[in-house]
Design a protein that fits this description.
- The protein is mainly alpha-helical.
- It has two domains: 51 residues, no CATH class; 42 residues.
- Helix content is 47%, strand content 4%.
- The protein contains five helices and two strands; from the N terminus they run ααββααα.
- A two-stranded antiparallel sheet has the order 1-2.
- A hairpin with a 6-residue loop joins strand 1 and strand 2.
- The chain is elongated, with a radius of gyration of 15 Å.
- The chain binds zinc ion (ZN).
- The site of zinc ion has 8 residues, from loops.
Amino acid sequence: MYSSEFDDKSRALVMAIVGVRAQCPKCGAVFSQRVQSSFLAGQRVKCNHCEFYGNWRFGTLLEGSRLSNTQFLALFFRYTLANDAPAIARQLNLDPGTVRDWRERILSLAVIA
Ligand SMILES: [Zn+2]
């Protein structure tokens, strides 16, 4: 249903939603231009200031998740409109429990600071 090319195009928006910055997610060091472009392209990078080795999902809501960027976006936006886990699960080829779990995680972002 979704191509990986579309998933790549979704990445920048997902990064913005979950608050990714072009810096080390562990120590906050500013990445060099080369490391920064790899990081923003979704690749794993190594920080020169700490032991961090990983990608942009580290420390975000998506850390450890296997959801694609496209699946995350669809969950994120559709749940602002409807709460029909079985239908969304079918459309995204996910388990309804996964959809409900992600609804909780996404709604937990909506805390007014
Ligand atoms: Zn670091």
